[in-house]
Amino acid sequence: MANEPVEKPPERSAIDRPWRMRATAIVVTAVAAGSLIGFVIIPAGQKSGAHLSMGHAMERAAGLEPGSPAVPQPLNTATSTPVSTVSWSPEVLKILASGRSRLGAQIAAQTCAACHGDKGLSPTTGAAPGGPIFPSLAGQSSYAIYKQLHDFQSGARVNPQMSAIAQTLAPADLANVAAYYADASKEYAAIGSRELLGEPDTEKLANEGDSHRRLPACLACHINNSGGPIETPVITGQSEEYLLKQLNDFASGNRKNDVYGRMRDVASKLTPEERTALARYFQGTL
Amino acid sequence: MASVTSTVGATPRLAAATGLQTRRLVMAHIWVAIAAFGVACLLGVWQMWARSPLQAPAHTAANYFRSVTLHGVSMAFVLTTFFIMGFGYYVAETSLKRPLPGIGLAWAAFWMGIVGVLMAALSVISGNASVLFTFYPPLTATPWFYVGLVLVVVASWIWCILMILAMRDWRRANAPRPVPLAMFATTANAVMWLWTTVGVAAELLFQVMPAAFGWSQMVDVGLSRTLFSWTLHAIVYFWLFPSYIAFYTMFPRAAGGRLYSDTMGRLAFVLFLLYSLPVGLHHLFMDPEHSNGFKFLQMFLTALVSVPTLLTVFTITASAEIAGRMRGGKGLFGWIGALPWERPMVLATGLAFVMLFWGGGGGLVNMSYGMNAMIHNTSWVTAHFHLIFGGTVVIMYQAICYSIWPSLTGRNFPNTKPLQVQLWLWFIGMMVMTLPWHWLGLQGQWRRVAAFDYSNPIIHPWGPWVVVSLIGGVILAFSAFLFLFNLAALHRRGIAGAPATIEYARAVHEPDRVPSSLNGFGLWNILVALLMLLAYGWPIAQFFVYPPPQAMVHRLG
Prior knowledge:
The complex is a heterodimer.
Chain A lengths: L3 H43 L7 H8 L28 H8 L3 H16 L25 H13 L5 H8 L3 H13 L1 H8 L7 H8 L32 H13 L9 H8 L2 H12 L3
Helix pairs in contact in A: 1-2, 4-7, 5-6, 5-7, 9-12, 10-11, 10-12
Chain B lengths: L1 H5 L5 H6 L5 H29 L9 H36 L6 H23 L13 E2 L2 H32 L6 H33 L4 E2 L1 H12 L1 H16 L1 H4 L7 H14 L16 H35 L7 H4 L6 H24 L1 H7 L3 H31 L1 E2 L4 H26 L19 H32 L1 E2 L25 H24 L5 E2 L1 E2 L2
Parallel strand pairs in B: 1-6
Antiparallel strand pairs in B: 2-5, 3-4
């Protein structure tokens, strides 16, 4: 009995030690084998194809160097159609955040109000067919206003009047005007809270889309804080004529400043009747 | 049998009163898990319907992603975490045959988990957290979604500590006897889970939550994906552990035999702990932020994860053969027919092995660097993890419930026929649902999309196969509700007099002593640390040495 505790420890460590040694050896061997293949043998096989020295190939495999050296590409000399160059970089967001509504009000009064109405409520909303059609700007997000003004400047969107006007605005002006109309939410409430009435098919397109044609719901993006692309304008309360013209222009490709061609894709999948019905639907009723 | 018949007259109340200390704790956990499972099954059916050429109600992209998020979170976080915690408490009390240390703390963890689940569920239902169950910025959900999930994870950490303490206390009192295999495996899972959650916890605390709360506007997408990959493979083994515990410690006894080797079981669990962690980069083979060498190294280590599974298949098949021959089976394969297939645990193990074969085979394709390129982000991947998780994991959870429910309710199943039907339906439904996914994945069908444009001539032929998958989904939902019914019915209609505990399978050669490395985790923790340092050290450090450009946060809700 007295001898047992003395005898047990050596016996115990005798069965423990080989386990520790072998387990460690197996793990180290596994890592070494994987590393040998991954960091030495594969780079050795790849180096000639990638025109690299062995040293560079190994450094590339270890993530110390970037991938294959760039191969010069043939230059494309075709002229491209201007597309939207707006990107929501931190710099652009900083400019927008610095926009001052009070400064924007002055520009709006001098430059925009004649067509887009006082406080951004277009007097032509709901005007007779054939008349001039100007969208209401009140309640649009600053991103939406900035995006369109910038596109008129860059030529991504073309309109005889707006293209010329946008040229005169400096980046800070864009931000100020954008802030001014974004702040006019009280004015927007007058048209934004209109009741939307339409046939069941039209309501379904607006609220649910049509998954079988890969048509997303209009209202998945075109209301504020929807979580869609931040530059998406709100469309509730715009005039039927204006909305229909934009849908038709997107469908025909006359207007092409939508990012990734989203609206060109959607509009061209809608039938002419659906475009008319949706334009009437989103104008809303008082 | 004699003891059962002699106590038939006893009232169930009496059986419950003399029952397990953790009885209510275990049932609370597992019923929460099952409730989440039931909801998630229904959502899954609707998702298959939405993707099929048939017109599904309320089918919008927004609803689809809301549904997928709820399905994923319910299945992957709620069902698993609550089941594993409940089953862990059960194993701790029944295998160690002593009270659980800190049962008050266990209840506190349970309620913390419930609060977390409700926060996360409300966030998803309100449409402010349609980010799926993976944490891939720059898309972020409402902060309450993450706070809720953090509460669930913290609750599971409390469980881990209780498991480690329970094993330590038993070992002190019973040295030098080896810890019972079921408890050794449960603690291995707890230790592995603590390692596993480090990655996602770091991602949530330092990247995703500051972004969701609006404290940071930019996020390093490469780093967050890397940290999430740390968790992403091992979490599946966390879910899988109870299934393997059932293979080793419940199946051989249910089959009427003995476990072929106790040491093999310990080895398999230790190998899971070792090799499920330093392998997560195999989720990022198509990502640009990591070099070939590290991707290859982790692929190589991934291949080693198949070793414990193959060890298990060998050991369990050998155990089944012992049982089959003891029951009079003769010849090369005669022992298979001699097994008691009418017992749920035996049937479930057999079906789980078939699904593991298909799911594991698909997984080998996924983890092969070259072949991965063909099926990356296709339905093939979805099929793989539904066979492993929905197949092997869930069918074994169901079999475990059937095995332990009599000891929790004090009542025996009057008839195992509905149990067998339920398990068969689950197997058939899962195969019918996932085999078309494999096929369509090979043809390039995307995962994680809300709908298919069946007017496209390339996509059009997929339609019938998607409908077949939908039929599989309907069978699964039916099986899920039969499962719920079977368990609920036992509470009222079972035959009273079931013993208040279960016996675990004994090994052919029961060990009276094992090497200390197979009776604790000290050595393995050191080796895991070494492996993680080698496999993840530079892949993570590179983001700090050469900071890459960051992405702007995109917040939902």
